[in-house]
């Protein structure tokens, strides 16, 4: 599969590594609005994001949005206005994904991550390095599950929300949409949408999320 990455900074680099782990995939371009013109760099096409439409006409490629911010990733996906099947789903060769899990397009599963049976992961999510999504979890679109964090069984993790590094959500709990859970926190009761919660057990510290 030929792949165009949207974004050319830190998160895009990690996605490129995930793509390189699979010999059937090839990155053809990295597009980012920090570029004004289209040029070639070590065999890759680079240029502004609007160049994507030309590439989609010229080649049969798939697209992955490699932007770490959940809000900005969502804005770019909306701006691109492409059908869901234009986006790739990227799984690092050293991730473990149950054949009975469901992953939507645009989502990236990083090395060491485990996605267990009957988990359902939405569009354009980041399931980061060594994170665990246990059985029967539901993860909303544009969510980010950070390195070494854990959603235990049956958790419902909302759209656009960010689970900080090493944080844990205990079984069957719910986190609303566009909320932030601080690094190292433990969620033992429901967290509403659009809040920031931290600590063990996690408490809401701000009535604003992402
Ligand atoms: C590959 C990658 O890099 S993936 C990226 C992974 N990123 C992360 O895991 C980052 C997660 N972010 C955090 O944990 C941040 O601290 C946030 C978002 C929760 C809070 O950030 P801010 O909104 O800037 O809050 P701020 O730093 O002002 O802290 C507010 C209060 O919460 C406390 N606090 C902040 N984060 C935490 C935390 N993770 N656990 C416990 N307490 C915390 C602070 O000590 C402070 O307490 P005080 O008011 O008593 O002094």
Automatic annotation (TrEMBL):
Coiled coil: none
SUPFAM superfamilies per the UniProt record, alphabetical: Trimeric LpxA-like enzymes
InterPro entries per record: AcTrfase_PglD-like, Hexapep, PglD_N, Trans_hexapeptide_repeat, Trimer_LpxA-like_sf
PglD N-terminal domain location: 3-80
Pfam families: Hexapep, PglD_N
NCBIfam families cross-referenced by the UniProt entry: NeuD_NnaD
Protein name stated in the entry: Acetyltransferase
Source species of the chain: Viridibacillus soli
Lineage of origin: Bacteria, Bacillati, Bacillota, Bacilli, Bacillales
């Amino acid at each position: 599969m030929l792949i165009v990455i949207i974004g050319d900074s830190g998160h895009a680099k990690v996605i490129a590594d995930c793509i390189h782990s699979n010999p059937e995939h090839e990155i053809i371009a990295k597009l980012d609005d920090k570029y004004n013109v289209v040029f070639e760099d070590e065999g890759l096409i680079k240029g502004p994001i609007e160049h994507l439409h030309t590439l989609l006409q010229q080649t049969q490629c798939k697209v992955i949005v490699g932007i770490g911010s959940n809000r900005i990733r969502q804005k770019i996906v909306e701006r691109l206005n492409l059908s869901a099947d234009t986006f790739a789903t990227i799984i690092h060769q050293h991730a473990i994904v149950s054949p009975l899990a469901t992953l939507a397009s645009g989502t990236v599963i990083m090395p060491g991550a485990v996605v267990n049976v009957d988990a359902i992961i939405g569009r354009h999510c980041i399931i980061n390095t060594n994170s665990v999504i246990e059985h029967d979890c539901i993860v909303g679109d544009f969510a980010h599950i950070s390195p070494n964090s854990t959603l235990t069984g049956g958790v419902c993790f909302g759209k656009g929300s960010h689970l900080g590094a090493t944080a844990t959500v205990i079984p069957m709990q719910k986190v609303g949409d566009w909320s932030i859970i601080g690094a190292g926190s433990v969620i033992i009761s429901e967290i509403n949408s659009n809040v920031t919660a931290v600590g063990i057990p996690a408490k809401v510290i701000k009535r604003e999320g992402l």
